[in-house]
């Protein structure tokens, strides 16, 4: 009881400081989280609704805005929302994952106080506890540039959120129970586009005008490819970074990633398919939405456009072509290229290897052989109140040591203002997707095989894209640079949600 009171006082004090110390505008949201019936793939399921909506409402904001989001938990179990890509500057208490934030009890509420400090771009939120993400409760976040900050393309005629992701017909409780029994999940049943199955979502356009799509892969495990029949996509932003404006016929988006593309409605007036399909899977799932011209002369015709299926080189080459626009402004007026990350000496190299195996006859996943198990007390609170026995720093090594998978509440110590090289080594046969809360990092290199110090000769030290989620291809590695300028306890995790749930994550204590 004393700890609970102390935590309440701490959160209230932090809220007062956040309100008293900020001069930027405030945006207020009041959300009621409930269970409700949904039918995304034609069968009744129990979904998580926010104010009766599936998916949840979009959050519209501007750089430096303060977001006051009062979440009422009307479920019959604890609940948390995390804000994928929102950096929570020096404020990991608001991050909304189990290691930093106390779950909201049933029938209670919690007010998140966020500031989108020095950020722009396209992101999303999602429920982080249990296996709630498989039931919905997710939605888009957009952060617009301030009026006086130049944007490297004209204002589009429309700006749409597009949430794509693989989906199961089974309720999230059944999927969670399967994982708790130590079993793997089956292949998903379909793909949703804005919460709807094939042909269920539509987007209206006017001929000759240009539109922006903010696309997020909010699914559970699969990389997805998106394309629009007879239209080209120009990439302009990735997770808060303006990119070189490269045009593609289709774009890969790995689980947990977000981006923005522009397209022009420059085709004969009719309806066209927007197609989304799984990547790197032996069985290909495909879903469609409709792009509808205002003066459409007819419905969609022919089959949906095909896309790449198992070609890793195609995806790798596209990933390498995504570069930062050095002359464009970001959240501030100075050019994005004014930060010369390639001239900074790294102070530490961390190598992280994912693995799969069994512990006591149950399926587990690990980072450097450690499979994370949550503690009863959020790690950030244990850290703040100096509660012993909850975790110990150094419970995960900063390079693979080999050996069998074992269970621990893994926390890695890192120094504030260190400039760190992190290498994700994937020795498995599937694509991995890694996310770091609280930060963006520079994706300086990716290639097949084992990473060695000689791999640094191929790094992009000039215009690597800065983002918060990166893929690692099968039997491959990806290297990132990150400036540890955000004090807190930050979750570094697999975005493959069953792997995250069964241990492929840890916390970085900066």
From TrEMBL:
Gene3D superfamilies recorded: Cupredoxins - blue copper proteins
Pfam families, per the entry: Cu-oxidase, Cu-oxidase_2, Cu-oxidase_3
UniProt KW keywords: Glycoprotein, Signal
Residue stretches making up the Plastocyanin-like domain: 33-146, 159-296, 376-509
Signal peptide boundaries: 1-22
Family membership noted in the UniProt record: Belongs to the multicopper oxidase family.
Protein name: L-ascorbate oxidase homolog
């Amino acid at each position: 009881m004393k700890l609970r009171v102390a935590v309440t006082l701490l959160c209230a004090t932090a809220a007062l400081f956040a309100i008293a110390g900020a001069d930027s505008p405030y945006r207020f949201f009041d959300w009621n989280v409930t269970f409700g019936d949904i039918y995304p793939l034609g069968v009744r399921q129990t979904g998580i609704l926010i104010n009766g909506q599936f998916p949840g409402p979009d959050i519209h904001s501007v750089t430096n805005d303060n977001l006051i989001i009062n979440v009422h938990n009307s479920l019959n179990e604890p609940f948390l929302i995390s804000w994928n890509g929102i950096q929570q500057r020096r404020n990991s208490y608001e991050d909304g994952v189990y290691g930093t934030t106390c779950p909201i009890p049933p029938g209670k509420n919690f007010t998140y106080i966020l500031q989108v400090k020095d950020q722009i771009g396209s992101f999303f939120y999602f429920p982080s506890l249990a296996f709630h993400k498989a039931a919905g409760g997710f939605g888009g976040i957009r952060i617009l540039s301030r009026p006086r900050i130049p944007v490297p393309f004209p204002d589009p005629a429309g700006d749409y959120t597009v949430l794509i992701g693989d989906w199961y017909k089974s309720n999230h409780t059944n999927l969670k129970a399967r994982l708790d029994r130590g079993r793997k999940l089956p292949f998903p049943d379909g793909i949703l586009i804005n919460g709807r199955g094939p042909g269920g979502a539509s987007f209206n356009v006017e001929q000759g005008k240009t539109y922006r799509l903010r696309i997020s892969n909010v699914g559970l495990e699969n990389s997805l490819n998106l394309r629009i029949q007879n239209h080209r996509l120009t990439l302009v932003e990735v997770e808060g970074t303006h990119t070189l404006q490269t045009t593609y016929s289709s774009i890969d988006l790995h689980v947990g990633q977000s981006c923005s593309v522009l397209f022009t409605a420059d085709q004969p007036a009719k309806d066209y398919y927007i197609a989304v399909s799984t990547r790197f899977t032996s069985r290909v799932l495909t879903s469609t939405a409709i792009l509808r011209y205002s003066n459409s002369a007819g419905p969609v015709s022919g089959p949906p456009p095909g896309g790449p299926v198992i070609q890793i080189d195609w995806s790798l080459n596209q990933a390498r072509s995504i570069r930062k626009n050095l002359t464009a402004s970001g959240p501030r007026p100075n050019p994005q290229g004014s930060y010369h990350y390639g001239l900074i000496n790294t102070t530490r190299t961390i190598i992280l290897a994912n693995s799969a195996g069994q512990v006591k006859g149950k399926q587990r996943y690990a980072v450097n052989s450690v499979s994370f198990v949550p503690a009863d007390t959020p790690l950030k609170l244990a850290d703040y109140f100096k509660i012993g026995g909850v975790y110990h720093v150094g419970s995960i090594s900063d390079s693979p040591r080999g050996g069998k998978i074992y269970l621990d509440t893994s926390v890695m110590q890192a120094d504030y203002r260190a400039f760190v090289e992190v290498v994700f080594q994937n020795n498995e046969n599937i694509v991995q997707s890694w996310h770091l809360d609280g930060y963006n990092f520079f994706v300086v290199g990716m290639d097949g095989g084992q990473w060695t110090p000689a791999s640094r000769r191929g790094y992009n030290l000039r215009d690597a894209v800065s983002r918060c989620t990166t893929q690692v291809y099968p039997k491959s590695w990806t290297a990132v640079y990150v400036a540890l300028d955000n004090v807190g306890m930050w979750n570094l995790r697999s975005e493959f949600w069953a792997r995250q749930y069964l241990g492929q994550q840890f916390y970085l204590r900066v």
